[in-house]
Design goal:
Elements (H helix, E strand, L loop, with lengths): L1 H9 L8 E5 L6 E6 L5 E5 L19 E5 L3 E7 L8 E7 L4 E6 L5 E6 L6 H17 L2
Parallel strand pairs: 1-3
Antiparallel strand pairs: 2-5, 3-4, 5-6, 6-7, 7-8
Length: about 140
Amino acid sequence: MNKHLLIAAALTFSSIQAMAADITPTPNSAVLICDGYTAAQANTIGGATVGTPYTATGSFIKTSFSASCSSNTIVYANNGAGGDATKFAVASASVKGNQTYKGSTTGGAIVVDEAIASGTAASAIKTKVGTTTITAAASL
């Protein structure tokens, strides 16, 4: 249940679109789910087909699933965060918004991470979410 709550909250800006990519998240490493530049994306996480088993050692993900994001949304995930197969962490931001968000299956909630200064370039927001915000989420 925590996994579904966490993913749903992290992908609040979701929409149904054609599949953009298949993402195989190496356990305990940050992976880009939605890049903030491409028009709305739907990615299969954990394999090429939704619902197939994902058997990587150290993985929180056990079955592949679909994640959808609207354009301007940046989302990173860490599967098996901190080397813990019971943990999944997310970090996100909207390039039009003014805050970054983080969360993990530890507690199952998404919280505001920090404010983004007005006029910050999308590339800088993407870098922040993919480094410091996902690291902070993984340590929750």
